[in-house]
């Protein structure tokens, strides 16, 4: 049984006098515990796909199933992490990371303790009473990760969560997020423009065509790389040939469009 399944998904946006198809003929499955990356040219519908999987949008045609149940609206089973942290500036870090729990009515001691344990694991235990403005960009993204994981979602949607960070912080957070997701056995979908990031973090990479986005090709990452830390993958002998393979596939498509 597939954990997540997309069946012939299409999404068309309508206005009074226009219609725009963002994605079409999208079909793929993801097994529980897999880490998948979506890459492709700007405007190809990567973020639209995440919004569809999250239940924020409904497909125009086709359906999306999470554990054999059709996704019709946002659900606590899914967590979303964006390129901006969207922490509430008037709440301190402790209040920010427990906001989702309070909204869901999960205020039991063990639920709150899990969130604080995650904060400690990510090296922010001493920042509980700080406010977002007192933290660096990398720290705020770690808080956003804790906030997402605190409600214990089964599926994590990551929309370019490292793109606004400097390169050194980005590499450190890749390792941290990857390790955290693997440790907790989560299933994840990453949207990124960075081919290297996709290779370093994924089990599989799905390359989309230009708008309307459809699946051009899927790349399977060798198991020994998929199980290693992203920083180590970037240093592996196989990294550059795989990067070139994906780059040439993208360039080939651009040349013919």
From TrEMBL:
Signal peptide: none annotated. Residues 4-235 form the ABC transporter domain. It comes from the Bacteria. Keywords: ATP-binding, Nucleotide-binding, Transport. The keyword Manganese does not apply. GO terms for molecular function: ATP binding; ATP hydrolysis activity. Gene3D superfamilies: P-loop containing nucleotide triphosphate hydrolases. InterPro entries: AAA+_ATPase (IPR003593), ABC_transporter-like_ATP-bd (IPR003439), ABC_transporter-like_CS (IPR017871), ABC_transporter_ATP-bind (IPR050166), P-loop_NTPase (IPR027417). PANTHER family: ABC TRANSPORTER ATP-BINDING PROTEIN, TAURINE IMPORT ATP-BINDING PROTEIN-RELATED. This is ABC transporter ATP-binding protein.
